[in-house]
Amino acid sequence: MGKQTGFLEYARKENNEIPAKERIKGYKEFHTFASEEVRRCQGARCMNCGVPFCQSAMSLSGMVVGCPLHNLIPEWNDAIYRGEDSHALARLLKTNRFPEFTGRVCPALCEKACICGQYDDPVTVRDNELYLIEEGYKNGWMKGDAPIKESGKKVAVIGSGPSGLAAADALRRRGHAVTVYERDDRIGGLLMYGIPNMKLDKSVISRRQKLMEEMGIVFKTGVNVGEKVKVSNLKKEYDAVVLCCGAKQPRALTAEGMEGCEGIYFAVDFLKAATRNVLDIESLPAKFDAKDKHVVIVGGGDTGNDCIGTVIRMGCKSVTALEMMPKPPVERAANNPWPEWPKTLRTDYGHVEAQEVFGEDPRVFKTTVKKVISKKGKITEIETVEVGFDKGKLVNVKGSEKKIKCDLLLIAAGFIGAEKLVPESFKLDMTPRGVVATPEGKYSTSVPGVFAAGDMRRGQSLVVWALAEGTAAAAEVDEYLMGYRNA
Ligand SMILES: Cc1cc2nc3c(=O)[nH]c(=O)nc-3n(C[C@H](O)[C@H](O)[C@H](O)COP(=O)(O)OP(=O)(O)OC[C@H]3O[C@@H](n4cnc5c(N)ncnc54)[C@H](O)[C@@H]3O)c2cc1C
Ligand code: SF4
């Protein structure tokens, strides 16, 4: 702990944000970096407390507290304060393969468990992490070196989302020849075609891809494994296969009048089309264009929020976000003490932007869609209804129905498991939750030599968990190939 009184002297200061009214004019990242001086003070706020919950990833009341990667947070905060950035970055990279992703999109589980946060504001762990990796790139400290020794083993990674990238990076560093197969035209999974550009600029992914290619990792994009590439050939060609195909089967909405009605789409399809348009890969199909439309989004969470930010940038006439759950409290409830994950209202960038543009919070809680109303096959309105619980069962509240104008209905109601093609092609055992079955705490599947990681094994989760899973799966693959592991 460099500065013993740091947490008393300096207030929390986050990275700056471009004001909402300004940033909605485009899709550029809206966070800008605080000065180096600010960053040193923010590092100094870390107390290096004896029990750093921030890096623990322990389970409390059924929820994980602290960083799933066990990032060595107090160590590198201290090094930031002392101005030892390259050392701090080396310590960060020891546990986190891609801080440029987590530093932008992680909900910072660490900060919710920071001891400073018990009575005051937590340390800006995520911003500090982002500062270090960006300094690394800026100063040429990030290098794509090939491993010193080749193992002679070949591994195929299927899927290039954060879990696939983490597995590929870890396996290559151990000297294995790694090929990553990706169905889409670009790598990154939901980092590329889920999370919008204003939150994660897509050049950040290309920059990492370049490094990984320099390390010797081969990316084959536009390849749908199970269809274009046969599983029997993969098994013959590679010593091990790691499946990181995500869990992108969306949860459908069942409301009267939906069948055959135009104007109702899954949020991820919409977000993907929007990003492809921003990147000039293909123009936005008219059906996804929210300009001058009344938009309703079903489902909160990151996906719903990203849809709000995107339709506002497109110039929608109005946006409403329906959320089935009741509105959470602003402050922690007495039965949800620190350092548990705070079950409080989370107001994200899209909510703030909607407030700025339309003068009110777009969220309507305890409400869902009961009926879709259409004219000539096109959606024009929806009928909403309040929901409540009766003897533990979700029920509609009689007489609470309301009509809302709606030209575009986006479904962001979560995901129900892995897509079928890969599990069926590999003949994998699955869990009742629709994800790949592996023994407790392991990544090996029911098929020898085939491993699974990320959302495909864990279910829809977070980027930081995908990185943790990809790294842990790679260690298991390493042991399978070599008879031992180094991590
Ligand atoms: C809209 C949205 C916003 C989100 N925002 C956040 C956020 O802000 N912060 C956060 O921490 N998490 C966020 N998440 C969750 C996070 O993105 C995921 O948990 C994470 O990307 C999972 O990583 P993954 O590698 O397991 O899978 P994915 O990222 O889904 O990647 C799977 C990859 O496998 C490929 N694939 C599938 N089948 C095949 C096949 N047959 N052949 C070849 N390739 C195949 C897919 O094309 C895809 O590229 C968000 C999710 C969504 C949907
Ligand atoms: S990866 Fe996420 S939880 Fe871990 S230290 Fe970084 S911001 Fe915190």
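^ flavin-adenine dinucleotide complex. The pocket of iron/sulfur cluster (ligand 2) is lined by residues 67, 69, 71, 73, 96, 102, 106, 108-110, 125-126, 129, 464 (CB under 6 Å). The longest helix spans residues 463-482.
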